[in-house]
Design goal:
CATH architecture of the largest domain: 3-Layer(aba) Sandwich
Largest sheet: 6 strands, parallel
Helix content: 25-40%
CATH superfamily of the largest domain: Class I glutamine amidotransferase (GATase) domain
Mean pLDDT: 91
Strand content: 25-35%
Low-confidence stretches: none
CATH class of the largest domain: Alpha Beta
Distance between the termini: 24 Å
Number of helices: 15
CATH topology of the largest domain: Rossmann fold
Length: about 525
């Protein structure tokens, strides 16, 4: 059996393609179909570990969860992780294959196109419908001859395209018409409908513009999606960090968590659940004075740990973190941030930098040695660090994505890993300072666990004598997927969607989710 397909492309980056795909995965799943997401090539520093142990873009893991299935490397066969202005680590079928310049990567595209085709074919054998996501815009004329993620995939798969535009940023009608004008005739024929995204206001005021679009292009408008506030579904790229920099300082009675915005920050989406907690203000900061007064400072993951450690020192943030630790104020380092908190980072093979050894901040008894083989694993761990330890059995799930091996030379571990990629193990992870204030772990995703996050915030509040908040609980991801799907069901033409996909399932809601 070969699954049906439908594709979501956009007039530009960050118009909401990933969320629309997530919502469609949930919506068609609720209609009784087996659904899978697919994105041929993803450029992102937020990544996840698939069920087969490989690394894929976080967006596809989220979309798979919305579809009710485990993510696999076939859902995102090519992942690019930027390392600088014009260089990226290239991950193919879940495995890092080295770093390439933009030109070097384009030269590899003919062979990678075959990888994309094979992954999509395997995926189509396992489900009823594949919802495909494009990247950027299909009208980037300078890249058309090397495209392997937009119209190249649509043509190969025979997929009709929903073209999404962001009305919140302005110019959406020009974006739709301009995109269509720049497409080749056979590409324009694949565009089955427009989707206006992130609308605020009375949709009746849009009707003249929607009528113009239909008359000018001959393409119908599938619907107008509202701007959804406070949606607990991770953003895919760093554009959202620019907004977060402007977050206010905490008011009296609130907790403030300062996450250092490293130049090469990665997997920062794992902290999103903190932003939805009542009485918690999360800020992404770049200057030492912005750390002062925070209840917790977080050093997050980094794609280039040694380079970001150098930035920490040059910016003065390192001195502030060290001073904070001396005062016994909580500091949490995750993955690259954990490595920075250690004594030394050794890189004799030049995996991450030209420096054979770089001194860490010296706050934890850890020594990192970088190796060429990347570790990617789903883990289950028993949490030893009091700052994070939940009740019950004290266990939580997370994932590892790192190039270095970290050795603890003294003191206590932060975690005890009890399972890796489904196999039992017994392995120490990270470290805790003698006073318990500084904690470092290589495991991502711990704060996505409700019990761990609740325990951490309770301990931070206890330090200041603050009462528990009275606001609503953080929404579960399942309910957020349903909220997104409900919006699509209410505002998109279901019959048109099914016609474009070539499926005819029951209407959403007639089959249990």
């Amino acid at each position: 059996m070969t699954a049906a397909v439908i594709m979501v492309q956009g007039t530009a980056s960050s118009v909401g393609k990933s969320l629309v795909v997530t919502g469609l995965c949930r919506l068609f799943r609720r209609a009784g179909l087996r659904v899978a997401p697919f994105k041929a090539q993803n450029m992102a520093l937020n990544s996840a570990v698939a069920v087969d142990g490989g690394e894929i873009g976080r967006a596809q893991a989220v979309q798979a969860e919305a579809a009710g299935i485990e993510p696999t490397v076939d859902m995102n066969p090519i992942l690019l992780k930027p390392e600088g202005e014009a260089r990226s680590q290239v991950v193919v079928l879940g495995k890092a294959t080295g770093s390439l310049t933009a030109l070097g990567y384009h030269e590899r595209k003919p062979e990678l196109r075959a990888v994309v085709r094979a992954s999509l074919a395997r995926l189509r054998e396992r489900v009823d419908l594949v919802v495909i996501e494009g990247a950027g815009s299909p009208a980037e004329v300078n890249l058309k001859d090397r495209d392997l993620v937009n119209m190249d995939v649509a043509k190969a798969a025979g997929a009709r395209v929903l073209l999404v535009g962001d009305i919140d940023r302005g110019g959406v009608f020009a974006a739709f018409v301009g995109t269509m004008e720049l497409l080749e005739p056979e590409e324009r024929a694949l565009v089955g409908a427009f989707v206006v995204n992130k609308f605020r206001g009375d949709v009746r005021l849009l009707e003249p513009g929607l009528r113009f679009l239909r008359e000018r292009t001959g393409v119908p408008v599938a619907g107008v999606l509202p701007f959804l506030r406070g949606l607990r579904i991770a953003d895919e790229d760093s554009v959202s960090l620019d907004r977060r920099r402007r977050t206010r300082r905490a008011a009296p009675g609130e907790l403030e968590i300062a996450i250092v915005r490293l130049p090469r920050i990665s997997n920062y989406d794992e902290f999103d659940p903190l932003e939805h907690e009542p009485g918690v203000v999360v800020r992404y900061v770049e200057h030492p004075e912005e750390l002062r007064g925070a209840d917790l400072v977080v050093l997050p993951g980094s794609k280039s740990t040694a380079a970001d450690l150098r930035w920490l020192r040059d910016s003065g943030v390192a001195d502030e973190v060290i001073a904070r630790a001396a005062r016994g104020e909580p500091v949490l380092g995750v993955c690259g941030g954990c490595q920075m908190l250690g004594v030394a980072l050794r890189d004799p093979d030049g995996v991450e930098s030209a420096d054979a050894e770089v001194a860490g901040l010296g706050l934890l008894p850890l020594v990192t040695r970088f190796r060429r083989e990347k570790t990617t694993a789903r883990v289950r761990a028993r949490i030893a660090a009091a700052l994070l330890a939940p009740g019950g059995d004290g266990e939580a799930s997370g994932y590892e994505i790192h190039m270095g091996e970290v050795e603890r030379t003294a003191g206590a571990p932060a975690l005890r890993t009890v399972a890796r990629n489904g196999a039992a193990c017994d392995h120490d992870d990270g470290a805790v300072s003698a006073d318990g204030a500084v904690v470092g772990t290589l495991v991502h995703g711990l704060l996505e666990d409700d019990a761990v996050r609740t325990a951490l915030l309770a301990r931070l509040r206890a330090r200041r004598g603050l009462p528990a908040p009275s606001g609503p609980a953080v929404p579960q991801r399942a309910s957020e997927y349903d909220r997104l799907a409900d919006a699509l069901a209410a505002h998109l033409d279901w019959d048109l969607l099914c016609d474009l996909a070539g499926v005819r399932p029951a209407r959403p809601g007639e089959v249990g989710a």
